[in-house]
Amino acid sequence: MSSTTTRGGRAAPEAVRRPWAAVLALAAATFAVVTTEMLPVGLLTSLAAGLDVSAGTAGLALTLPGLLAALAAPLLPVAVRRADRRTVLSALLLLLAAADLLSALAPHIAVLLLARAVVGVCIGGVWAVAAGLGARLVPGPAAGRATALVFSGIAVASVLGVPAGTYLGALAGWRWAFAALTALALAVAALLAVALPPLPAERPVRLGAFPELLRTPAVARGLTAIALLVTGHFAAYTYVRPVLERVPGTGPGLISVLLLGYGLAGIAGTFAGGALAARAPRRALPAIAAALGTVVALLVPAGGSLPASAALLTLWGLVYGGVSVTAQTWLSAAAPGAREAASALFAGVFNGAIAFGAFLGGRVADGPGATAVLVLGAVPALLAAAAAGYARGAAADAR
What we know:
CATH class: Mainly Alpha
Largest sheet: none
Number of helices: 17
Mean pLDDT: 82
Number of strands: 0
Shape: globular
């Protein structure tokens, strides 16, 4: 597969063959990294028991990758500079396979956390590079759909990846779930090598680009809202299994079904959020943040009712499904001349918020308990709605 370039290294749109196949390959990459990142949520109880640690300590298997991803996301595009993005993504998936294999073989929590640190580097790199490629592969009016499709891998990970890994872990043990992820990462690495065209860097990312972007009011305020929203979500969602275990009438099988419903709703939310963000990203982000905070807060009084908890969990998935594509669209509009640098900042802030939210949730889960985790999750999300609304108003005033 060949590609030509225009001035500045940008791939010429007409040179990209089978662009939607390439976009699907990117969606497979986001599916693989997010499934790997989020699998400890579904395996939290068995992981803690198997390694003889508390649920809060086992939650570090989610916190650590988020922290490393936050560091890797802005640094990796600088490190690879002019390297072909197809080569970079394929290499990251091979590294992910090695980390998953080490996780499967880990004899101690320290070894597992080392493997999960490598996972974090892969997550940050894939997010930073892949997030802005949908619009590059499918430019013009369809760019929004392409970006939503890339990010749909995140929601599909919730629908298929995490529930399937959870089910496999229940049948054969959590180690086999990580072994399956090894095979998945190898397959996606091969798919990327075949489906993507050559993708030279549009323009090399330099460290100085990040302070410049942070001085852009729309970027800074958008990132603040994203940090609050994602912190709140993961403070609660990381410990959603213990939360659901306290609802009368639930068991392991039903919890897997509930998480499946959450993920299915997330897929719908990704495309609905993408459509809304394409029309009005500054209205979409505060609306999503307010809805998410409200839903998580309502799960507290709904804890005694299985139907109410199931309905709210599904609504939670629907709302959260639109977060990534809406945030990416916001930042792309705020920094159209530095798309990859903005994507790297977005990935760094997003994954840092995952780590921070999971860490805070773990401390609360080991202390006051599951109900307090929901309160902790709702408050930052509602603050994010206020921050995003302020950013929208400030941008309107500037115009």
